[in-house]
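Q: Structure tokens for this one, please.
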Amino acid sequence: AEDSALRETAFIIAMGATISCEDRVTLAYHQMQEATLVHDAERGAFDSHLAELIMAGREIFRLEQIESLAREKVKRLFFIDEVEVFLGFQNQLRESLSLTT
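A: Here is the predicted structure, written as tokens:
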């Protein structure tokens, strides 16, 4: 990443990804893509592309909702990895929610 703020965010995400399992690496990759979308929006990359900004915003919202659902499911189950549940939901809903990450 050329921008130091985005680079710092990416490094923080990457460091967290190496803590426990390979699912965390996949999750970190998705988080980096989301951080890049947010960063681009904040820097005005979508200023003349309103439709793309709306699509990016919807995707981020949907991913946050999926993460929330995964957390709720994990609370009801024992010995389940939250990251695994989140990625499972995300993969199953990728097409129907038009997710790119």
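A few notes: The chain has one domain: 4-93. The chain is about 75% helix and 0% strand.
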